[in-house]
Every structure is written in structure tokens, then in C-alpha cells.
Amino acid sequence: MWATRLYSILLSSVSAFGITAGAHRLWAHKSYKTNLPLRILLTIMQTLAMQNSVIVWARDHRMHHKYSETDADPHNIMRGFFFAHMGWLLVRKHPAIKAKTDTLDMSDLWADPVLRFQYKYFYFLFPVIGFVIPSYIPTFWGEKFEISFMISGVLRYVLTLHGTWLINSAAHMWGSKPYDKNIAPVENPALSIITHGEAFHNYHHTFPWDYKAAELGNYSANFTTFFIDRMAKIGWAYDLRTVTPELIKKRVERTGDGTHKSHEY
After folding, report:
1. CA–CA gap between residue 205 and residue 55 (Å, rounded)
2. pLDDT tens digits, 197-213
3. pTM for this prediction
4. Considering the chain, what percentage of its residues have pLDDT values greater than 70?
5. Most buried of the four, 10, 147, 156, 260, by CB within 10 Å?
6. How far, in Å, CA of 155 to CA of 138, rounded?
7. Residue 263 confidence (pLDDT)
8. How far is CA 218 from CA 18, 67, 229, in A?
9. 3-class secondary structure, 54
10. What is the Cα–Cα distance from 21 to 41, expressed in whole angstroms?
11. Cβ-Cβ contacts under 8 Å for 88 (sequence gap 6 or more)
12. What is the H or E stretch that residue 82 is in?
């Protein structure tokens, strides 16, 4: 049982990187580039997370940034915590979302044959990669399949979903706004620890093209940056985009809420 639990935690981290380093920072924001092996690996990891295909995930996230806090934002925080967290998936999309979706340029993602393959076969791939294979592996050390299915499949899926959803909800409500006090997203370091570095959200919405999704390269609360940096070290990731300290300083002085620490420049 303990081996299965540890295995499930490892799977959760692997699938989380598929979302954070893959669907989010690589494909939704194009904040860095990768070679083909890493694109394939990240696509498999993102499929393991079972949060729709990369193309659909990135489309919704680009809508969220382009139309943040409006009716065209798929998980508009102005409609409350529950809606932003998971309610947006339980109701019909607002007409404004459908009307504005065509304004997005998704040609870069459709041009990738790896992503087209995943999109085309997603409803076959996600139960096999997300449930069947992960649930079968623990049987090699004597775990019952039904127990493995509940822990490595269902429970892992639920926890990973809520981790992602907390960025849409809590990371838009509770925390500081050192970079832009005029937007809803906040800095929530505690939440960043459990979401692999995704909750430095006031910074991310201010500078969405930064591959770190945070000002500092502090790996203790930003495991995704550590992962991308390691991939860059071996040449699998490159052209990492970031923001200069001078630009950050100017933005903090112009729109910050005064909580930014000067030694961070």
C-alpha cells in the first residue's frame, strides 16, 4: 500500500509537469522552445493529467489571459470562487466566450503534428495513459488492481484537478499584488509549493511570457522552473524568455501595491 501511495505521488508530479511546463508555459504562452523528444514527453505527461488535450487546454488559457475578469474569461473570478474553481466546467459557456474564441490565433499549436495526434486520439489516449497503465503497474509489486485504480487513478486525478483549479480560484483571490494592484491575480507562495510554482500569479499575469512564471528562480517553490532549467542544461529546452530587472522595477513602481521587496530587484 505504501509503495502504491508513493508511486501515486510521483505520478501526480509527473502529470503536473505536463500541465505546468507543457500545456501552460510551453504551449499556452510560448515562453520557451523544445526539441521533439521533450515535446513528445511533455505531451505524454499532459495526457497523464487527463485535463483535455493540449490544444483545448491552451485555447482556454489564452482566452483567460486575453479576456481576464470578463465574461469571455472561461473561469472568470468575478463570478466567485466556486465558479472559477470548478463551476465553469459544470455550466454552459457564456455566449461571450463563443463569440471571442475565433479571435485567438491557434495556428502555432495546430501546426505541431504531435499535438494534432494527441487532439485526434485524445479520448482513446487519456483512459489508457491516465488510468489503465498507471493502475496496472502496481500489480507488479503485489497491489490489487482495484486498489491501485482508486489510488493511482481516481484519487490522483482528483487531487491533480484541484491543484490546477486552485490557480484559477485561490490564486486570484488571496495574496499580495506587488506587480499590478489593478488585476485580480495574486502572489501566493504557499500555494506555489503544491502547484509546482504556478501561484506567483500576480507576476505571471503581469509578465505572462516569462518561462519562470515568477520573478525569482527560487526552486524551493517553483519546481517547474527547475525542470525547465534542467531540460535547458541538456539542450532539450532553449530560447527561454524572461523579463529584465529594469522592466520589473519600473512596473512595480508604477502599478504595484507596495509589498514588493526592494532586494528582489
Report:
1. 20
2. 999 999 999 999 999 99
3. 0.94
4. 98
5. 156
6. 15
7. 43
8. 20, 30, 12
9. helix
10. 11
11. 74, 75, 76, 79, 168
12. helix 81-85
